[in-house]
Design a protein that fits this description.
Layout: H1 9-21, H2 23-70, E1 168-170, E2 177-179, H3 194-206, H4 211-222, H5 228-254, E3 258-268, E4 271-279, E5 284-289, H6 294-300, E6 309-312, E7 325-328, H7 330-342, H8 347-368, H9 376-396, H10 413-423, H11 425-428, H12 430-433, H13 442-458, H14 464-482, H15 487-495
Parallel strand pairs: 3-6, 6-7
Antiparallel strand pairs: 1-2, 3-4, 4-5
Helix pairs in contact: 1-2, 3-4, 3-5, 3-15, 5-14, 7-8, 8-9, 9-10
């Protein structure tokens, strides 16, 4: 059908009638035609607008889907284990840049090698019995020199069984029978001592051996294989022993000027859960919760009371805590900018990545030289460049046209990144304005890394109690390791009831 029904029989009859009726009828017909064309034009314009909006939305969706296909560990927050089989473009590239130094040990590095010890545990003297030239006996010959060589080895390791016997004796004066008391830590007819418990908990909780394999190692190496139930009791005893120290570690983390926070998913009795960490370079506090967001952070009790600066990856829940300062992880930004530069071909992303690394290098040099702050004029210049590049990113990635639906208009991944970098500029550049603030959140990510290893080799936690005990012991052991304190000796002291307390300042 043509516009306004012009090819219908009724329309042709109206035309003939208008010509027969004179000018007034012709004018009326023309007005009808004009009105019909106007209505149809409005419908066409409205339909074109709808199609344009749909096209924009589809292009944005297509870009997002293509982006998801092209992301891997070098241009997103995906872990390296999620990368597909090895095409060259999916090999993660370092974001640190080229240092210009040769691989291997650098000049001035002390190096580590085996050296002779002054006080060996045993000395075996080898004497020549006869002269190699004439065969004369050398038993009484003087010693000209001695050459020393030392062999470092492990003896055959077997568990030592110590039997305690409590004698009962009769008093010759009154005839009363008196039995000697056993030591306070010898409470059962047969039991394991603190040495076995220390090593079992160390292997299971620190080196992440599953329960069965922990017992197998103790049996094959030391001849004292322990059951799963016994190991669980040892873990519980150790967790209770260090509980007060871990509470003190938590309070010290809360009081820190700069702390790192992050979380990672795990399985708790077959259900999703989250392991949270709050840490510094000398302290570590872990906690387990079924949730990831603000409900979990409130329940764990670290973020609600922090007054320093929290370094994190930008999870929306962190921004609810306005009483503390924030800093964003720029390692995440570098990976996202790599994606925008390589996959979306937007030059502003590469320039901004270069700028962030340039500021980082200047901050690292200043810290190494003991300079308290970067020059104000340099900071101002970097800030202007940052603002201009982010503005370019926003202009290249505008929001989609409004659809009338509730909520903010959707943006592309590049648009969302540019918007975050604009909204949280101060938190992104915190490492520039305050040299105490690190460039990234790698401290928290390193503290969480071994948790993923545990999940791979040991599976899920079977109960919330097991998870809580794991967090207690790992908080204590991680803090000891960061401060260079002896772990095995400290765990042994914990089993004896007096765990060493690390430095909390």
């Amino acid at each position: 059908m043509g516009p306004c029904g012009m090819d219908t029989p009724s329309f042709r009859e109206d035309v003939l009638a208008a010509y027969a009726g004179g000018p007034e009828r012709i004018v009326g017909l023309v007005e009808r035609l004009v009105a019909g064309f106007g209505e149809q034009l409005e419908r066409v314009v409205a339909q074109v607008a709808v199609l344009e909006n749909e096209n924009t939305a589809l292009r944005s969706e297509n870009q997002a889907l293509r982006g998801r296909l092209e992301t891997d560990s070098h241009n997103s927050s995906k872990p390296p284990s999620s990368d597909g089989p090895g095409t060259p473009k999916r090999v993660p590239k370092s974001l640190r840049g080229v240092s210009g130094r040769r691989p291997g040990g650098q000049p001035g590095h002390p190096g580590v090698s085996l050296t002779l010890v002054e006080q060996p545990d045993a000395v075996v003297v080898h004497q020549p019995s006869a002269c190699t030239a004439c065969g004369h006996d050398l038993a009484a010959a003087p010693v000209l020199r001695t050459e020393r060589r030392q062999l470092i080895d492990l003896p055959v390791l077997r568990a030592q069984v110590v039997e305690h016997q409590a004698e009962t004796r009769t008093c010759p004066g009154c005839g009363q029978a008196t039995t000697a008391p056993f030591p306070a830590d010898v409470r059962a007819p047969v039991q394991y001592g603190p040495g076995v418990a220390t090593l079992a908990v160390y292997l299971h909780q620190e080196h992440l051996l599953p329960v069965e394999r922990t017992g197998r190692v103790l049996g094959e190496v030391f001849g004292c294989e322990i059951s799963g139930g016994t190991l669980e009791r040892m873990v519980g005893q150790c967790a209770d022993a260090v509980a007060d120290v871990v509470t003190a570690i938590k309070q010290a983390v809360i009081a820190a000027a700069i702390l790192h926070s992050d979380e990672t998913g795990l399985s708790l009795n077959g259900k999703p859960a989250w392991l949270h960490v709050a840490s510094t370079d000398r302290l570590t506090y872990y906690a387990l919760h079924p949730k990831r967001g603000r409900k979990a952070l409130d329940a764990l009790g670290v973020l609600p009371t922090v007054r320093g600066r929290v370094v994190h990856d930008g999870l929306w829940s962190y921004w609810h805590y306005e009483h503390c300062a924030h800093a964003r992880c720029n390692a995440h930004h570098l990976r996202e900018l790599t994606f925008v530069e390589e996959q979306l071909k937007q030059p502003w992303a590469g320039s901004l990545k270069t700028l962030l690394l340039e500021i980082k290098e200047a901050a690292d040099r200043a810290r190494a030289d003991g300079v308290p702050a970067l020059p104000p004029e340099a900071q101002q210049g970097w800030t202007v460049r940052y603002t201009d590049l982010v503005a370019e990113g926003l202009s290249l990635n505008p929001p989609a046209p409004t659809t009338g639906k509730i909520g903010r208009p959707k943006r592309s991944p590049a648009g969302n990144l540019a918007l975050r970098l604009s909204t949280h500029q101060a938190e992104t550049l915190a490492f520039m304005t305050d040299l105490r603030v690190p460039f990234d959140n790698n401290q928290a990510e390193r503290d969480l890394r071994m948790m993923k290893v545990r999940q791979k080799i040991s599976g899920c936690f079977r109960s919330s109690t097991a998870g809580a005990r794991f967090c207690q012991i790992r908080s204590y052991v991680s803090t000891l390791r960061k401060q260079g304190l002896p772990i095995l000796a400290s765990l042994a002291d914990a089993f004896r009831g007096h765990p060493p307390v690390p430095t909390l300042a």
